[in-house]
Amino acid sequence: MTSNPFDPEALVDAMAPLLGLTLTPESRAETMVHLGIAAEQAKKLLSVSLDDREEPAPVFRP
Amino acid sequence: MTAELLDGSAQAIAAAVRSGRASAREIVQETLRRIEVRNSALGAFTDVTATRALAKADAIDMGRARGASLGPLAGAPFAVKNLYDIEGVPTRAGSKINRDRAPAESDATLIARLEAAGGVLVGALNMGEYAYDFTGQNAHYGPSRNPHDLGHMTGGSSGGSAAAVAGGLVPIALGSDTNGSIRVPSSFCGVFGLKPTYGRLSRAGAFPFVASLDHVGPFGRTVGDLALAYDAMLGRDDADPAQADMPATPVTQTLEDGVAGLCVATLGGYFARSAEPCAFSAVGALARALKAERVVELAGAEEARSAAYLITMVEGAALHLERLRERAADFDPDVRDRLIAGAMLPGAWVVQAQKFRRRFRAAALALFRGVDILLAPATPCRAPKLGQKTFVLDGQEMLVRPNIGLFTQPISFIGLPVVTAPVWTEGEKLPIGVQIIAAPWREDLALRVAWALERDGVVRAPVAKLSP
Hints:
Shape of chain A: extended
Low-confidence stretches of chain A: none
Number of domains of chain B: 1
Distance between the termini of chain A: 36 Å
Number of strands of chain A: 0
Radius of gyration of chain B: 20 Å
Helix content of chain A: 40-55%
Largest sheet of chain B: 11 strands, mixed
Largest interface: A-B, 32 and 37 residues
Order of helices and strands of chain A: HH
Order of helices and strands of chain B: HHHEHEHEHEHEEHEHEHHHEEEHHEEH
Strand content of chain A: under 5%
CATH architecture of chain B: Alpha-Beta Complex
Radius of gyration of chain A: 16 Å
Distance between the termini of chain B: 14 Å
Strand content of chain B: 5-15%
Largest sheet of chain A: none
CATH class of chain B: Alpha Beta
Structural class of chain A: mainly alpha
Mean pLDDT of chain B: 97
Helix content of chain B: 25-40%
Number of helices of chain B: 15
Shape of chain B: globular
CATH superfamily of chain B: Amidase signature (AS) domain
Strand order of the largest sheet of chain B: 1-3-2-4-6-5-12-13-9-7-8
Oligomer: heterodimer
């Protein structure tokens, strides 16, 4: 993630049609702002080293 | 007499109704009058269920006349955030879109339980759209306004709930809290709020936001009312698959057990930076009153907040994706674009967040082996002005909307029970809240501490001075 700069513009333009979303220019611009904030949060979270064997919190019990 | 009762507690109203000093009809009529007079200023109610409320009040009065046993909330009015199903009312969840849905066919479980205890539902309350909000502002229905200073935010997303309680419209209201939506409005509006342990109270009939993080709980002007409402809502509900299989242990009878023997500590590190001084002064006031000298760190709080942030974006987006496709123009733009962004995030981020959640829980449980209660700010500042977009914390300008919850998010991320208690400073119009945090399933301890602080005058939740 640190070696590949996060590019909100590329992401929003690639994902919107895949998701079936039509964005106005204002919405596209705001979405990019929020993608940028999310990427900052993800950078902090992904800096934590977690073992392959660590379980996610929700555990399904059949 | 009735007006005095309505400025007091639900407990006092119920005692008056049980003893015959007041009728439930008088209480409800005066409540409806207050809503009529005050709601245009407060923007708290979106729906008033007057006919239903008067019928319920009459049933209570008739029950008393024939000698029936009345419940602990007999005749006490309450209202609910408009994401709770109310039979016959469309469940807006703060949105324009949901208003087009068919009216709910039955009441949410928690409404039914409060009414079974004698409470009287008087309506539904304003909220941020789809609960994705910390401000209490709403593009469709207008903002809820802070009763202590109408130019300021209530906080959100349960803004109408806190406004209705602080404004003296109802003594008890229900809200929901995914990342801080009970605790933030409690702090800004100066009322008590209880976010129980994740999985404690039934969410059945409450419109969802983030299944992994959604909690439901009460607001009140006294700790005793929080406890009464909580006790009435306890219990297994098979309609909520997320509810934990825990015994329903009432707390009201334990409130007066006191704080002697409890180890209380203040959270340092992450919880001791990025806020205005008033947030830390409020925590300090509680710590002094409780003789809590220890400061402890909850390692990983910052990453926990990030993880909660990302889970919220992704699960919220998944919930609303179809509506984003079909009715994007009908969303509040401030909510819509965060949801759209959430739909585009990598799945690996969320799995990392859920793995980290387990690790962070382990860190918190380890901390609770040495302490009973943790204190932390509820919000980084007092209520911002309505429409305010940014604030400055630690010298850095930040967006208000995503950052109001920076102290609440790490705590709800792992579902810890919290009572938010309001602190007032001489000369200030607005209060600020402190989180009283307990280990999972120990709501009783958080409420005991809050009750002792209220008894000693350290925290309080007065009715705002509004027109009559």
